[in-house]
Every structure is written in structure tokens, then in C-alpha cells.
Specification:
This protein is mainly beta. It folds into two domains: 131 residues, OB fold (Dihydrolipoamide Acetyltransferase, E2P) (Beta Barrel), CATH 2.40.50; 158 residues, Nucleic acid-binding proteins (OB fold (Dihydrolipoamide Acetyltransferase, E2P)). It is 12% helix and 33% strand. A hairpin with a 2-residue loop joins strand 3 and strand 4.
């Protein structure tokens, strides 16, 4: 059928009501958002953002309401989609922006693709990877993997992807979203090593929309975390402890979930796998820890500083 591109959409969307089908690859995926309120009578108040791209650039795509339980788990990073009968809306200005793996990619930030059950009823088709043709010009998923030895030089809030062997995982903890609110964030701390430094990655992992992965992080698993943000204390000296925290677009993968993921082709991932083959499993097992209370960042040594 006659296709359109994201670049053409941006130029012509105001003058059209119906749009030609789109062929895009998913580059980023946000966590699922629940926006239900007691006074609003919505059956499925869910929303999820994806960043999708074709040869012309990248744009946000929003999955609404009952399409979320139907499609959210099937649409993964790297999935190729054929979209028909979608709507175009002006972008929501306050949403989070993932950092693209390809810094040269053009971003269409003024509009977003809206997928709904009606007005119009969107048709979504997943194209199997073996049927994707090179002449469609769809971009590959690119990552920004770093090693532990590179982390100390990175600025606060820098976005990166990491892979490591888990040596510690803490219990799940809760933090209030707002001071007197009823809602909580669920998170846990983990340490992972990659052989490039004596220090581990310290990871603050908030529960994303992958409970099956979040609950099964354990020592000796290979952990991949994408779209992590660097957190460093800017007030103290630069030698203070640095850690990584999840963002709205973070994805977490553990042993058993890596097969077929786009990052398996990345050079730093391959280097890490080579390093693990040189390690003795028994030696690493002796150094692993699970559970317990993990106060971090550590409080000062004396009460005066505290």
C-alpha cells in the first residue's frame, strides 16, 4: 500500500484528516502509566509512550487505554510496526525524553502519533524481523553502553546503558511519591561488575513495567539496564560515590531474557560476555550478597555533618 513517512507527516498533518499507513521501528519504550481517578469513569485509564523511527527521523507514539493491556507487552524495543488509521496530535510538552542512541537522528518533537480504540480505530500490525526488508530504510536500534571504568568521568544526569554480573541485590523498598500521598515507588539496589574496575556499578532500580524481571534479579545473573541516568553529588568532592538510576524509558533484562534483544550485537556487550568466560563461577559466588538493609548514599561519619 502507499506509505507515508514521519517527515512527510510533520509537513502535511494540518491539512489532512486521513493518513497513509506508517512503517516504523520502536527505539524506546516507556513504563506503563495509570492515570485513573475515582471521579472519572474510565474502564482502562492506561497510557504508554514509545519513540518510533523510520528513515526520515524519530517521533513519539502514544498507546491509549484498552490498547495498552492488548499491545504493551508485544511491542518491544526493536519491533517493526505497520500502523493504519491513527491520529496525529500536537505533542504533550512535559513528557520525558529518552536520549537517542544515534545522536544524528532527526527528532520530530511538535507532533505525536496517537493510537486509540476509536476515533479512528487504529490497526496495529507487527512485522516479523525476518520479513523486514533492508530497502525499507528503517534504522537499527543503537545503544550507549559504558563500562564501569568509564563511569567516573561522566557528568550528572548523563544517559547510558550498562551490562554487568550481579553481585548484590537488596530487598524491595518503598518511597513515597509525594510527601503525604498514598502512592509509593517500589525500588531495589543492586551491584553489578564488568571486570573493567575494582568498583561495581551501583544501580537504583525502580520497578518498571516488567515485574517478572524486577522480582527475579539475583546474584550471578547477567543484568542489562538501558536508559539509566548518572547520579553524582555535585556539592561534595568529586570522589563521592556515583550511582545509576532508572529513567521513565529504562528497560531491564536478566539471564533468560537476552535472546533476540538488539543489544546482543553491541561490541561492549560481546566484550563483557568474553570476560565472564574467564571468570570462575565458584569464586564469584563467594563474593555475592542478597537482601538486607542497604543505606545509600551512606550517612556521614559523625552527627555534626549529618
Amino acid at each position: 500500500s502507499k506509505l507515508t513517512s514521519l517527515g512527510q507527516l510533520e509537513m502535511t498533518w494540518r491539512s489532512r484528516v486521513h493518513f497513509h499507513p506508517l512503517l516504523v521501528r520502536v527505539l524506546h519504550k516507556s513504563r506503563l502509566r495509570y492515570y485513573g481517578k475515582p471521579e472519572k469513569k474510565l474502564d482502562m485509564p492506561y497510557q504508554a509512550y514509545f519513540e518510533v523511527a523510520d528513515g526520515s527521523g524519530m517521533m513519539s507514539m502514544v498507546l491509549w487505554n484498552s490498547l495498552c493491556p492488548e499491545w504493551y507487552n508485544s511491542i518491544k524495543v526493536g519491533t517493526v510496526l505497520l500502523l493504519e488509521q491513527y491520529a496525529i496530535k500536537t505533542s504533550y510538552p512535559f513528557k520525558t525524553q529518552p536520549t537517542p542512541g544515534d545522536s544524528q537522528m532527526k527528532r520530530f518533537a511538535t507532533i505525536e502519533i496517537s493510537l486509540n480504540v476509536r476515533d479512528p480505530p487504529t490497526k496495529i500490525s507487527i512485522i516479523p524481523e525476518e520479513m523486514v526488508k533492508p530497502d525499507w530504510g528503517l534504522p537499527e536500534v543503537k545503544y550507549r553502553f559504558i563500562t564501569r571504568s568509564e563511569l567516573d568521568d561522566l557528568p550528572n544526569n548523563h544517559s547510558c546503558d550498562v551490562i554487568g554480573l550481579v553481585t548484590f541485590v537488596g530487598r524491595a523498598e518503598r518511597a513515597r511519591k509525594r510527601e503525604h500521598g498514598e502512592d509509593f515507588w517500589l525500588y531495589r539496589w543492586a551491584h553489578a561488575i564488568d571486570g573493567t574496575s575494582d568498583q561495581p556499578f551501583i544501580l537504583e532500580l525502580f520497578a518498571t513495567s516488567q515485574p517478572d524481571v524486577f522480582e527475579h534479579i539475583h546474584p550471578m545473573t547477567y543484568l542489562v539496564c538501558t536508559q539509566m541516568r548518572v547520579v553524582r553529588d555535585l556539592t561534595e568532592n568529586l570522589s563521592s560515590t556515583i550511582y545509576l538510576t532508572t529513567s521513565n524509558e529504562s528497560q531491564i533484562f536478566i539471564t533468560g531474557w537476552h535472546k533476540g534483544q538488539p543489544y546482543t550485537k553491541d561490541t561492549k556487550v560481546k566484550n563483557f560476555i568474553q570476560w565472564t568466560k574467564t571468570q570462575s563461577e565458584a569464586d564469584q559466588m563467594k563474593k555475592t550478597v542478597i537482601g538486607g538493609y542497604y543505606p545509600f548514599p551512606r550517612p556521614p561519619n559523625n552527627f555534626l555533618k549529618y
